[in-house]
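Interim report, section 4.2 (structural modelling).
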Amino acid sequence: MDAVAHAPAIEHGPSLRQRLAARGFDAVTLLVIPAAIFSLLLFVYPFAFGFVLSFEPKAGGDWLANYRRFFSDPFLYETIAKTLWLAIPVTLVNLLLAIPIAFRVRLMRNQRLLTTLLVLPITLGTVLVAEGLLNYLGPQGWFNRTLMTFGLISQPLKLVHNYWGVFASLVITGFPFTFLLTLSYVTGIDPALEQAAATLGASAWQRFRHVYLPLLMPGLAITFCLSFVQAFSVFPSAVLLGEPAGPTRVISIAAAQAAFEEYDYSMGSAIAMIMGFVQLGIVVAVLASRGLFYRGPASGAKG
Amino acid sequence: MIRDTTIGAKLWAAAVWATVGFFILNLLAMIATVVTSSFATRWLGTWLPAGWTTRWYTSAWSEFQLWDVLIVTFQVIGAVVFISGALGVTAAYALARRDFPGKRLLVLLFLLPLLIPPMTFGIPLATVLYQTGLAGTFWGVVAANLVPTVPFVILVMIPFIEQIDPKVEAAARVFGANTFKLFIYVLLPLLLPGILAALLLVLVRTIAMFELTFLVAGPTSQTLVVALYYAVFAAGVRAVQSIDAMAVIYMVTTLIWLIIALRFVNPTQIVTRAKQQPAH
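Predicted structure of the assembly:
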């Protein structure tokens, strides 16, 4: 009894090491430090540096000079509208195509061949897709040739070095990405819910509209955001397949030109920050509207 | 399973499959165009080229100095794979095994480089690398490529480590294993399939990672995809077939690794990070 009452450990409480361990800090937790330092150095620091640098114009002037120049020069501020005019239709097309296809593919027993084929353009990357489409969609390419053979058109369609070339490349690389994300959300919903609706006499459209769609909405919102930011930062295909001086002068071209052709890193950073804020704005708007939809379990468990 | 047998449902299904078929047909035709063109002698205004040759491969090989480019590419990829594995797996282990204040913030920090497109964070990153003099060098390219791959490995590995029972490690400790032995004889064999899958995905993604390499690479530190971009960008200087031959070399390099990767991973993992839930 005496020995326990006078044990020093109880009087002084647990050591610092024990208290830290109880909160989850011990030698194992320290393993996270190298990756965290790395991320701070190469991700957080450049972002902060770029943010500060964007307020220090190269040509002098006050701290907002870069932003004022961006929003007063039509050659610069129009890039936002041009990029949105590409990114939003492409994202909507990809998403609207992906939903019905994902619902069909979810019933397939063997999805591996299809998913492998769809992963091809993502793996090959935007540069190769742009190079391939230049030949394939060109005036002498197989696409125009086929349409002309079937008599659908008499003149070759102009599909490269304009808006539609970039559009096509964004569909080819963006659709598989959107589709595979949508598919993973669709297969995450318990089919028992649909079976229950069917038992109660709901038609296919009613089952989709009243059972699946509300459950799918949060996932679709995230899919839209991820696909949108990818399309919004389009770069190689806008240069190679589009008109980089005209209708497809997207915002990343403006940023890269300012930074690496005019060597105005301050202006380049300012444009990159504007690009980030537009993306953030759209993502926040989409995710905020998510609150209007159903949120809750998507499994068919009781309760 | 519910079977809809109305005509409308059948037409709808047919329309959906037709769309999928149209997409895949165009995709394969696009790839076939590049391959056909790379073997063509002269191809103007006809369905197929006038004759076949392999000389474009030898000319592309020497014109674009592909041997040097390929060596640089594999050195960059090797360094990226090794470093992102070492940094990513250790961090994933800590995040999977411990709960500590600030963990959510840290996970968000690792999630952001995967959600933000490379072009957005690449420009400030390249600016910093230019100011430190790292840009244009081999290690600058490696550092830029590591920004999305380290978080990728972490997020792929966390669920994988969580499913390994901590009691196995406790048992090894009871029998007197020190940390090094625990890692070599217990953890590594259990983690190996996950590490292999994560690193193969990193490899496939790094070969095709254009934006970051483009922004920081110098003439001697270009990877294959950036060299291909410059070749297409300056089209007209070289024969189209020569550029196509280079594109085929790039495709083959990528596809070999994709085929190897697909033996170990589900194709959807290239897009989504976590393992897909099995469908009911």
